[in-house]
Amino acid sequence: MTDAASASPATADICDDHAADVAVFDNVFRSLGGRATMAGAAVTLRLFEDNSLVRDTLGEDGTGKVLVVDGGGSRRRAVVGDQLAAIAAANGWSGILVYGAVRDAATLATIDLAIHALGTDPRRTDKHGLGDRDVEVAFAGATVRPGDWVCADADGVLVADRPLD
After folding, report:
1. How far apart are CA 69 and CA 137, in angstroms?
2. Per the domain annotation, does 91 fall within a domain?
3. Are 15 and 49 in contact (CB under 8 A)?
């Protein structure tokens, strides 16, 4: 039911027990990290092909948190790669959800961090310091507000306004 590293409840069980309390993202995400499961309070970013805010945010303590990145669905530039994933893992983040692309997939698969993204692209982003933090984001059929609870595993990704198990 859970991955010991992240202590996340199974999304299928949550949907069975709390169907009225969750929003399930469309099944568009690939699990690309060293583990599939994550659960925690959402820290949200809205950006487009610029990962400056991603780097800044992952440099903070991420204990009990999931970084939710609305990258506008772009698959032209990767907003997370192996270096940022290593920073996230070192700072205790439970995982990263990216509505966009990531890169360094072979290395990401070796890092003890859940990463769910639309796909991969080898190109890095521009760095202009653009984007918004701690804003409501909506993509793939669900809306996430800062502090919402995000949970993911091999079955999918969901969001609720409080932790569920």
Report:
1. 8
2. yes
3. no
Q: Give the whole-angstrom CA distance, residue 115 versus residue 103.
A: 11
- Nearest Cα to Cα of residue 51 among 69, 29, 33: 69
CATH of the domain at 32: 3.50.30.40
The number of folded domains in the chain is 1
Return all residues near 80 (Cβ < 8 A) that are at least 6 apart: 51, 54, 69, 96, 98, 102, 103, 108, 115, 117
Nearest CA to 71 out of 90, 92, 91, 52 is that of: 52
What letters, b where the CB count within 10 A reaches 16 and e where it falls short, cover 60-84? eebeebbbbbbbeebeebbbbbbeb
Quote the CA–CA distance of 4 and 135 in Å, as a whole number: 31
Domain that holds residue 133: 11-160
Condensed to tens digits (0 to 9), the pLDDT of residues 18-71 reads 999 999 999 999 999 999 999 999 999 999 999 999 999 999 999 999 999 999
Give tens-digit pLDDT for 66-95.
999 999 999 999 999 999 999 999 999 999
Q: Is 1 part of any domain?
A: no
In a domain, 133, yes or no: yes
Helix (H) or strand (E) holding 10: none
